[in-house]
Write a structure and sequence with these properties.
single chain; alpha+beta; 33 helices; globular
Length: 694
């Protein structure tokens, strides 16, 4: 650091920022090691963290020592949340509002006194997971110094740590950085590694252009599943409303789609003005500042610019205003407001307009957002969508690898919705491993072997090891000969039923798995015959084996049409039944019935009762169903029990304007049937014998 005069040093170090830096979670230790190497242990260290006794615990512990009753201490502390960092002063504040606590404080001053000091004493010490401090090499007088001259430090488990906590290092005017992990960056790393492996292309994030029209097309349509920040139902709907066309729109949306702006309807105003439904109204002298947000005040930086440009306040005052906003220092903010109004009038702004602008900024201060934060995250969102559009195979492979069980149907549904020509296949002994994998030559994604119930981690790791060492498998016979005994009979049976040998054995239909299973169990393992479930008449159908595959892997396209028609006696209902593609192509106002796995529901109170919102997974198309109060009340008691099963529902097709998708709404004639309970009872059990279907 360059030597400067003492006054300048003092001025500079009086306002150092708290720097938050996001890195791949797997690379955080590398960054910390880099800081150590660059600045040395004499000028950098981790930040200490301490736990202390909480107010509620203190009162209870000291009261117990004094012999006071448990019931009494429970009563006087029942409103004190032990998860909140209360101070000793809060005890006095509570006592002024509670007669019982007030009497306790009066009768037990010794306990109050002990609480005051006990809460100040650290009970346990640790290393802050992300905070790091870097100190200058010269003090305020320009003399050389180091970490040990400036603060107390100690070693905890071999790590050099400040004995001051983060807030005290900041008060001591030292630079604190938080080395944070962002899992989305790990995803980018995985996608780029896969692109390089599949295509030999090296992707550099910084060189990705921000004007890809197809990327914004996806945003406008709300195709944001697994896109950083924008992957929620709310933001998908907001994308359809705003119809973003440039990066600045995404930045503004990030800042606006939060409780504060939404309560004031600022997010809707932004969408309406951008799309010409409302006219932009620019305040006096600030058009150049609010132009990118269509006349609306969205960012803290805009407020600072207005205070500086229109009000003539210094940039330091403008920065102080940002701090006052963050720390809710209203008195200080209002004092600056008076100076702003006076300065704005001096610069030609009409008196009434100056007050209006300040009132607007003052109201805005309660939910203002930092533009640099919104921009940094929106850039990550854009990159995420760019990969999704330009490298769908690699994007979806990594996306499915990182997805939870409940997220997979939604991601598969969006693949279908966006029309990507990627074939998703069940696990395969030659392509699958411990994670979802892809075949770039044929544009395919394979489920992982670990998804198969009955094929554990040990079996999977052994299969992968043999394949990696000795090459791919060419037949079931060869597979059985090559894999070790740790891949047992139960594992191989599950692999066959799941379709993991379909490509190896060149099976053209799922029902051919029966012959392969018989070959293995009877001819190779010496069983007398197949289990009863696999010898039924229905085991000769493709539907049976797809059901079994889905039971074991969670993946499979089921012929719900045939299933429901065979199971429900209502011929009129069966006549209006449509599959997933037919539903997507149906007309608004058309009465149809749909069937699928019941994956989600919630209920909500409206004016005339309780309505229910349901979702079914119909071969990876997620269909939303709205049951108005009359229909929901009719089926309400059964719905909880239906969860996870296959249901069939009739209703009227309408377009959900917020979601931008077709939705099935209940009518007076709506019927709801349970076709299967968790794919193992009722109809399935009758059709397919005693085989378990989940």
């Amino acid at each position: 650091m360059v030597k400067v005069k003492s006054v300048k040093v003092r001025k500079f170090f009086s306002d150092l920022p708290d720097v938050d830096l996001d890195f791949e979670t797997s690379g955080r230790d590398k960054v910390k090691n880099y800081i150590k190497e660059k600045y040395g242990s004499d000028y950098s260290c981790s930040v200490g963290s301490y736990t202390r006794m909480k107010l509620k615990t203190c009162i209870k512990d000291f009261a117990k020592v004094k012999g006071l009753s448990f019931d009494l201490t429970n009563k006087i502390t029942k409103d004190i949340d032990d998860q909140i960092e209360y101070t000793w002063g809060d005890l006095i504040s509570y006592a002024s509002r509670s007669k019982l606590l007030y009497k306790f404080v009066q009768d037990n001053p010794d306990i109050v006194h002990m609480c005051k000091y006990a809460m100040m004493v650290p009970k346990a010490e640790s290393v802050h997971p992300s905070a790091y401090i870097i100190v200058p090499k010269h003090n305020q007088n320009g003399d050389k110094t180091n970490l040990y001259n400036l603060m107390p430090v100690k070693a905890i488990d071999g790590v050099l740590v400040s004995e001051w906590e983060g807030k005290y290092t900041e008060a001591g005017l030292f630079l604190k950085e938080d080395i944070l992990g962002l899992s989305q960056l790990d995803k980018f790393h995985g996608i780029m590694d896969l692109i390089k492996k599949n295509r030999g292309e090296e992707i550099i994030l910084e060189k990705i252009p921000f004007d890809d029209k197809e990327v914004f097309k996806y945003f406008r349509r709300g195709w944001c599943e697994d896109v950083f920040q924008f992957g929620t139902t709310g933001l998908m709907g907001y994308c359809r409303q705003v119809k973003p066309t440039q990066l600045s729109d995404l930045i503004a949306m990030t800042a606006l789609f939060r409780p504060g702006p939404m309560e004031s309807n600022a997010h809707q105003d932004f969408a309406d003005i951008k799309n010409g439904k409302k006219k932009a109204k620019y305040d006096y002298g600030v058009e150049n500042i609010t132009e990118e947000t269509y006349s609306l005040l969205v960012y803290q930086e805009q407020m600072m610019s207005i205070m500086h440009q229109l009000g003539g306040l210094s940039l330091i005052d403008a920065e102080n205003a940002r701090k006052y906003i963050k720390k809710k220092m209203h008195r200080e903010l209002n004092a600056l407001g008076e100076r702003f109004i006076a300065g704005a009038i001096k610069n030609g702004c009409p008196d009434k307009e100056a007050h209006k602008i300040w009132d607007k900024m003052n109201a805005f201060s309660s939910y203002s957002f930092n533009k640099s934060h919104a921009a940094a995250y929106s850039v990550v969102s854009y990159y995420s969508m760019w990969f999704k559009v330009n490298y769908p195979l690699e994007f979806w492979t990594i996306s499915l690898q990182e997805a939870s069980e409940s997220e997979i149907p939604y991601r598969l549904a969006e693949m279908k919705k966006t029309g990507v020509e990627i074939e998703v296949r069940p696990p395969d002994v030659n392509y699958s491993g411990e994670k979802f994998s892809c075949d770039p030559e044929n544009n395919r994604i394979f489920y992982n072997l670990n998804k198969i119930k009955g094929c554990g981690d040990i079996a999977v790791s052994n299969i992968v090891e043999v394949r990696n060492n000795d090459g791919e498998f060419f037949s079931l016979d060869e597979f059985v000969q090559r894999v070790p005994s740790k891949v047992n009979k139960s594992n191989i049976k599950a692999l066959i039923i799941s379709g993991a040998f379909d490509l190896v054995e060149d099976l053209s239909e799922p029902r051919q798995r029966k012959d392969l299973l018989k070959k293995y169990l009877v001819e190779m393992k010496g069983d007398e015959d197949l289990p009863e479930a696999y010898n039924s008449a229905d085991s000769l159908t493709n539907a049976f084996w797809i059901m079994e595959q889905k039971r074991l892997t969670g993946f499979g396209e089921i012929d719900y049409d045939t299933l429901v028609r065979d199971s429900i006696p209502n011929k009129r209902f069966a006549k209006i039944l449509v599959n997933d593609l037919e539903f997507l192509g149906s007309r608004e106002g058309e009465t149809v019935a749909v069937a699928g796995k019941f994956i989600y529901y919630r209920e909500r109170a409206i004016k005339n009762g309780i309505m229910g919102s349901l979702q079914v997974d119909c071969n990876n198309t997620i269909i939303n169903i709205t049951l108005w109060p009359d229909a929901y009340e009719k089926y309400r008691e059964e719905i909880e029990d239906y969860k996870g099963g296959v249901i069939a529902v009739s209703g009227v097709v309408k377009k959900d304007k917020f979601r931008g998708v077709k939705t099935l709404y209940s009518s007076d004639s709506t019927k709801l049937y349970l076709v299967s309970q968790k794919m193992k009872k009722n109809t399935f059990e009758k059709k397919f014998g005693n085989s378990e279907h989940k």
